[in-house]
Amino acid sequence: MPQDEAVVGCVGTVLIGTRGSAGPGEVLVRVRGGSETFLAWSEDPLPPGATVLVIESRGCREVGVIEWVDPLDALGGEAAGAG
To pair with 73 at 20 to 30 A between CA atoms, which of 2, 12, 32, 67? Predict the structure, then answer.
């Protein structure tokens, strides 16, 4: 099964919660100038609405994900005034 390397490293949102090893959920990923849905597998359960980072393509529109918090969000308004 061909893997979709373009999706690795993209950020998405959980639509249907993942269940860890009990089964996949569904994510909406921003990729190729638009958004696409994929079956999503994660080590730990993730709730709907969680932000995720795609860490692997499993082929056949399936991806491995982890919960993601953008490190730049921690800077808040400080980044806007920098420079």
Answer: 32
